[in-house]
């Protein structure tokens, strides 16, 4: 059976994540060349953009975005070269073939803004993936003003049991028949609203967010699951790297 670039192994010039057995963080790299027998990548960099050292024989998982899903390939480091600075990786097993991609989510608390008509709501993410967020926003008062941002972080009491968040990258049907009141609700399921997510590094990611689910609360907060719409691929790659790094950090501290 012929092997396909992009599916069975990453294509050249693809940004990849490298998970080395000896390290607890995600390394970022760029594929220089690739075929079914060998993958040449730039030397992996950590979150501080510093090149790292790995020993020959290290097991390295290569993760990249395929045509329709995330792909993962187990490899072995067979050579580390300095001129030019690159690693040579040899596949030691088949790439992981999944069903429709289920984006990795991390329980990270990041500041987020959402524009709803004339109002700007401020809140915090409950979790985040490259596909979307679950976020809690401060309630709007009757005059439409936004409550102080700290209100978003206050826990609700006597809430219903938490429900699993659906895969935000998967297509979900929106109700065809809405009541007149629901059709006018700016936070109705299916509504597209401007979003801005602030990463810890001071970077701000902007896109449209589609309301996928409203989570009921008793404290007046607005909790939503939102799917990112119109986010450029480079921004998705940046966010995916941030999610992987966040997960690694939480695991290294024993929080996951």
Automatic annotation (TrEMBL):
<protein>
    <submittedName>
        <fullName>PilZ domain-containing protein</fullName>
    </submittedName>
</protein>
<feature type="domain" description="PilZ">
    <location>
        <begin position="99"/>
        <end position="138"/>
    </location>
</feature>
<dbReference type="InterPro" id="IPR009875">
    <property type="entry name" value="PilZ_domain"/>
</dbReference>
<feature type="domain" description="PilZ">
    <location>
        <begin position="185"/>
        <end position="245"/>
    </location>
</feature>
<dbReference type="Pfam" id="PF07238">
    <property type="entry name" value="PilZ"/>
</dbReference>
């Amino acid at each position: 059976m012929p092997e396909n670039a992009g599916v069975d192994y990453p294509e050249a010039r693809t940004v990849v994540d490298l998970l080395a057995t000896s390290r607890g963080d995600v390394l970022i790299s760029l594929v220089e060349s690739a075929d079914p027998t060998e993958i040449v990548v730039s030397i992996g960099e950590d979150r501080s953009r510093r090149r790292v050292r790995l020993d020959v024989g290290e097991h390295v998982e290569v993760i990249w975005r395929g045509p329709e899903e995330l792909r993962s390939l187990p490899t072995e480091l067979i050579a580390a070269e300095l001129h030019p600075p690159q690693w040579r990786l040899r596949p030691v097993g088949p790439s992981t073939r999944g069903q429709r991609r289920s984006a990795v989510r991390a329980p990270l608390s990041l500041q987020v803004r959402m524009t709803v008509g004339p109002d700007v709501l401020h809140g915090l993410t409950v979790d985040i993936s490259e596909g979307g967020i679950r976020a809690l926003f401060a309630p709007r008062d009757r005059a439409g003003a936004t409550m102080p941002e700290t209100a978003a972080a206050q826990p609700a009491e006597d809430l219903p049991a938490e429900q699993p968040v659906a895969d935000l990258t998967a297509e979900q049907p929106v109700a065809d028949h809405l009541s007149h009141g629901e059709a006018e609700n700016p936070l109705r399921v299916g509504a597209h609203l401007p979003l801005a997510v602030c990463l810890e590094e001071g970077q701000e990611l902007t896109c449209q967010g589609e309301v996928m689910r409203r989570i009921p609360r008793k404290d007046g907060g607005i909790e939503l699951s939102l799917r990112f719409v119109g986010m450029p691929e480079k921004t998705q790659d940046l966010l995916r790297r941030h999610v992987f790094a966040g997960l690694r950090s939480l695991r290294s501290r024993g929080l996951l």
